[in-house]
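Researcher: Structure prediction, please.
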Amino acid sequence: MRRLCVIGTGYVGLVTGTFFAELGNQVACVDVDRAKIELLRSGGMPIYEPGLAELVQRNGAMGRLSFTTSYAEGMREAEFVFIAVNTPPTAESGGADLRYVEAAAKSIGQHLDHDLIIVNKSTVPIGTGDLVARIVERERKTDARFSVVSNPEFLREGSAVADCLNPDRVVLGSGDSAAGEAVAALYLSLRRPIIITDLATAEMIKYASNAMLAARISFINEMAEICEALGADVKQVALGMGYDKRIGESFLEAGLGYGGSCFPKDVKALMHMASTHGCHPQLLQAVEDINSDQRRRAVDKLREELGSLEGKTVAMLGLAFKPNTDDMREAASVDIAHMLQAAGARVKAYDPVAAGVAKGLLPDIEYCHDAYQAAQDSDAVMIVTDWNEFKQLDLPRLKAAMRLPLIVDGRNIYDGAVMRELGFTYRGTGRF
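Model: Predicted structure follows.
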């Protein structure tokens, strides 16, 4: 059993700490947010992630997982300290805001009283590992030794527990080969590929991976627009493409674009890094532009069917950026709701999990307790998040509740022919 400290109890930190406790390690999670720590200590959860609450409870009960606001307590006898704090985009440039990473490094340095390995789990610009080392070196008050290792996360919200236990690969970067091997040993029981490289390359692997996935989403969305113009079906196009082993089927779902805590900020951050180092990230710019256009195009479909949106009532089914999470960061629903309200529409919404979080971002829309209440007397329903429960709706009941039977399916969860047979006016994404 190894002793670990994880700085940050946000999405990455809480999942990471719980994962290592599940593997049998002694883990202390540190966060400066006292209210969040008290919530976790009392058995509450600050985020929604399937399966995570049960693991937190079990490992807490077994004494392997604890929560504290004290760096001294969290780092006591720790062999590894993981930095897993937020790195949001800056408002000015879109580059990563490193204030929380820098604060964590400063506190680690001030409390460093024994040899340990600092592991950067946060998504950070290339060169941040060296920055962390400089800050810790500056702040430390003893001659305790330390090394810095980059260990980027590749978690998908909604399936993060499974991703931790069965990762595609583990990426590690360090200038200290012994430190890299020591962190690798934490993952050996998973029997998954482990890549050990230098710090900068490991940091870049994270950004390049997310940028590629974002590019695939924007690519299939651009194909969807062309399919609509030419009378082709993008779902069948994606299916045909996916059987090609050089392409594969993942991330070829046309829809309202990507959102969440990773893809938007990582594409922006990579563009910023490239631009400030004399590169011209034109493909990344196109990826971002296409993603933004998808939300506008969905609203345009409503306008094409209804004419003016002034005085119309639109029901949004789904608010979270993807199913199985309550994360509203960069969610399509926020942009769409703002566009609808700017056009004079009344907006109603239902989400099975994310409504509580959404109210802080969209306080002026009407929240409903189910899809049928949202559809009641609505001029249109837009599918924004592809929750499974929306795929199983009683569609005749939904139609009967609506003022006009118009569906704009932003996630292609329905069959257009079936919807038209039921009497709906149906607009999919890249489908005729």
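Model: The CA atoms of residues 396 and 422 lie 7 Å apart.
Researcher: Thanks, that helps.
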